[in-house]
Write a structure and sequence with these properties.
Layout: E1 7-11, H1 16-27, E2 31-36, E3 51-54, H2 62-69, E4 73-76, H3 83-88, H4 90-107, E5 113-119, H5 140-155, E6 160-165, E7 167-169, H6 178-187, E8 192-195, E9 201-202, E10 204-206, H7 207-219, E11 224-228, E12 234-235, H8 236-247, E13 252-255, H9 273-279, H10 287-298
Parallel strand pairs: 1-2, 1-4, 2-3, 4-5, 5-6, 6-11, 7-10, 8-13
Antiparallel strand pairs: 9-12
Helix pairs in contact: 1-7, 2-4, 4-5, 6-8
């Protein structure tokens, strides 16, 4: 699929991944409309050239916005996904991630393609690479994303992409995830980094690689479920050590009980064979390189 001139709606487009993706879509000469209620997104993150509608995807009025724009592609990124918030606010999380997704699917039935940003949180807490035929969420967020996937399958019999995105990092993260939190503490001059559990390993992927993966899936018109990760996992301690190495100064770690999650998975690693084999996409940015650029950006 050639994206030039395509009318694309990006929900949650003023957020972390969304704002980067909008830039990529503009580079492809797509016509982009962002729908975002700015709960976590920031209007100033949006590049010049995108259209913007401040609206909650749970509202019925979203149908008129979509009907008037007549999108050929809908990329649904809008969600509540910071897990501590989800655990503390399960009703709101369900409303947005499930009911909002259903509302959107009903409103955009005429769109040629629908891409749903799911999550590695739908997977079971096991070690080893996770393939797309596995599932078994252990928290509210993962449950809502799995229900969202089922809704996509229900409403879209074809031309639907489910992208299970692993742990994304990069500039302008709008949630206090572990990497921006570590860098924020370093930026404030701290030598003692307050952190939770150091042991959990995650598949950290740079936001630029995520955007390229989404574009590859759209360009190759690949329906189905696809992991977006790197196929490599690193612990929180690895992140601290890499930041220390980049800064050339030893960082001490203080484990704070309040930062340790009650329910924690120790491994999260993507098997990316499917997306690589079907689109040719592969991640380009190594973790150390991405962290170095992010630290420079944060200065």
């Amino acid at each position: 699929m050639n994206l030039t001139g395509k009318k694309v709606i990006v929900t949650g487009g003023a957020g972390f991944i969304g704002s980067h993706l909008c830039r990529c879509l503009l580079e492809q000469e797509a016509n982009v409309l962002v729908i975002d209620n700015l709960f976590m997104g920031k209007r100033e993150l949006l590049p010049d050239g995108v259209m913007f509608e401040r609206m909650d995807i749970c509202l019925k009025e979203v149908a008129k916005v979509i009907r008037d724009f007549k999108p050929e592609i809908v990329i649904h990124l809008a969600a509540i996904h910071y897990i501590p918030y989800c655990n503390s606010n399960p009703e709101k999380t369900f409303e947005v991630n499930v009911m909002g997704t259903r509302n959107l699917l009903e409103a955009c039935s005429n769109a040629e393609w629908f891409l749903f940003a799911s999550s590695a949180a739908v997977y079971p807490p096991v070690s080893g690479p996770l393939t797309e035929d596995m599932y078994g969420p252990i928290d509210i967020y993962g449950k809502t994303k799995l229900i969202g996937e089922d809704l996509v399958r229900l409403y879209r019999k074809n031309n639907a992409i489910i992208a299970r995105i692993f742990n994304v990092y990069g500039p302008n993260d709008t949630n206090p995830h572990v990497i921006p939190e570590i860098i924020s503490q370093v930026k404030r001059g701290r030598r003692k980094i307050e952190i939770g559990n150091l042991s959990p390993k995650r598949d950290y992927i740079h936001v630029n690689d995520v955007c390229e993966a989404i574009l590859a899936l759209l360009k190759h018109e690949k329906s189905g479920v696809y992991n977006i990760g790197t196929g490599k996992e690193h612990s929180v301690k690895d992140i601290v050590d890499l930041v220390s190495e980049i800064l050339q100064k030893k960082l001490q770690v203080v484990q704070v009980k309040e930062r340790i999650r009650k329910v924690e998975r120790m491994h999260l690693l993507a098997d990316i064979n499917r997306i690589q084999n079907e689109t040719g996409w592969k991640p380009k940015i190594e973790l150390k390189e991405g962290l170095k650029v992010l630290i420079e950006y944060a200065k």
